[in-house]
Amino acid sequence: MKWGYGLTQNPSLARLCLAPKTFKVESVATQEEACRLRSFDSNVAWEIGNIIRANVQQKFTRPVVVYIAHANSSQLLFFATSGPGTLPDNMHWVKRKEAVVLRWGCSTMRMRLTLQTKAKTLQEVYEMGDPSIYAVHGGGFPVKVKGVEGVVGVIVVSGLTQENDHCVIVDGIQEYLARNP
């Protein structure tokens, strides 16, 4: 059974992420809170990155880029493709999604939904002239740690639909949390 472009349903890999039709600002904010980690370092980034990559390989036929970095320095902690076929354009999307997460401290999906409720673009609300710096398309996600204020890292997936880019991150973090109670 196929779900959209490149997504094959695998019954053993139940989706924890909401169906894209049910995305609302509040539900995505709740997802972000539910994905708060107990700690974050290069080992955690490695484990989450590998979970996301493995899940993408099992669920999708399209190749993606998985990128995880520290927020304070943009130090790269994890970078991988799920297979051959990614393009330099994927990295352009990664950097633009990362910029949204780092500037506003929320997922790119939540920022997109927030703007949609206002019927405005990012450029209109924040008086930005250059849309090549920021991308409000799902697939950028803040790494937050319990008891720590602000964003400590960023996870970005590029290569699927924006909804699926977002969901593979949420599912990957939830899987990591289930493995590491």
From TrEMBL:
SUPFAM superfamilies: GlcG-like. It comes from the Eukaryota. It holds the Pfam family HbpS-like. One of its GO terms (cellular component) is TRC complex. GO terms for biological process: post-translational protein targeting to endoplasmic reticulum membrane. This is Uncharacterized protein. It comes from Suillus placidus.
